Amino acid sequence: MPEVFQVFGIVVISILVIIFFYYVPFMLWVNAQVSGVRISLIQLFLMRIRKVPPTKIVNCMIEAHKAGLQDVKRDGLEAHYLAGGHIERVVHALVSANKANIQLSFQMATAIDLAGRDVFEAVQMSVNPKVIDTPPVAAVAKDGIQLIAKARVTVRANIRQLVGGAGEDTILARVGEGIVSSIGSAESHKSVLENPDSISKLVLSKGLDAGTAFEILSIDIADIDVGKNIGAQLQMDQADADKNIAQAKAEERRAMAIASEQEMKAKAQEARAKVIEAEALVPQAMAEAFKKGNLGIMDYYRMENIQADTKMRDSIATPATATTKKK
Predict the structure, then answer these.
(1) Quick one: angle between helices 197-204 and 168-184, nearest 10?
(2) Chain centroid, CA 235 distance in Å
(3) Most buried of the four, 135, 166, 186, 326, by CB within 10 Å?
């Protein structure tokens, strides 16, 4: 039994020691003291209570102390960590900025980090500028020839405007707009091909980096290709449109002529119908005249002789007309 209690006591003591060294990281405190960072065991213990990793805080403080940064304090690091920031990235950026003689304070670095930008990458871009390749930009000169240009934009991060400044997409959009404006103002596409640097000079002079998180160092035209003859294509399209309009108007006039002809035929048929109707009334009128004594038998015979004579003359004239038509 004494051996059991002895083993149980050793286990309990081991657990208590582990818990103690977890909440009171003694070796981390020793590391900080050796590195010249002044921090107490109580502060390390309170970090555990506040759910702040002491190892990250102490390592960042050691890095900042060795780099000679005076404005990096424990409270600031804890506050930035609790706010969801990346304290290691911030300290790396501060050290790099200090070595490169770039003005960057702890407050500015934490603000940039909390804004969602990579502050360490921004400092690196300030030291080593970044080259951005624009997509092909198509524009048309005044002579109607299309040019397709590609540019390379060299930018450097603007630390002061990283918070609230526009990103790479805005730079690309503004550069593309400047290229279109420059080519569009050229009298001939040949002048653009002869002096492509005129595009970069004009675009660069417009101050396209205003309000952005970058500073444009140079704009270089990497390639220019000749595209379609847009002016000729537009003229052809206009000619086709005019032809279609003329054809539509001609078709409209033809339809109106056909409608007028149909209307005239209908009127002629109506007139013939009226004539036939009137001819059908002649026998009735003659019968009525006989009844009333207005028409005698001799008058009737004379009228019959006239009709027979008319038919005879028509029959004699018809072969001659047919022969004339054949000739």
Answers:
(1) 120
(2) 27
(3) 186
In angstroms, the CA 78 to CA 58 distance is 10
Q: Do residues 183 and 150 touch, judged by C-beta distance below 8 A?
A: no
| Size (the chain), residues | 327
pLDDT at 91: 92
Q: Report residue 309 as tokens.
A: 């004579």
Q: Tell me the pLDDT tens digit for each residue of 34-51.
A: 888 888 888 887 888 888
The Cα 110–Cα 92 span in angstroms is: 12
Q: With helix as H, strand as E and coil as C, how does 106-154 read?
A: HHHHHHHHHCCCCHHHHHHHHHCCEEEECCCEEEECCCCEEEEEEEEEE
Whole-angstrom distance, CA of residue 287 vs CA of residue 66? 142
Beta-carbon contacts of residue 323 (< 8 Å; ≥ 6 apart) = none
For 188-239, what is each residue's pLDDT tens digit? Answer: 888 888 888 888 888 888 888 788 888 888 888 888 888 888 777 777 888 8
Output phi, psi for 118, to 5 deg.
Answer: -85, 100
Which 8-state DSSP code applies to residue 248? H
Token output for 274: 């009226």
Tokens coding 239: 């000619």
DSSP state of 35: H
H/E run at residue 296: none
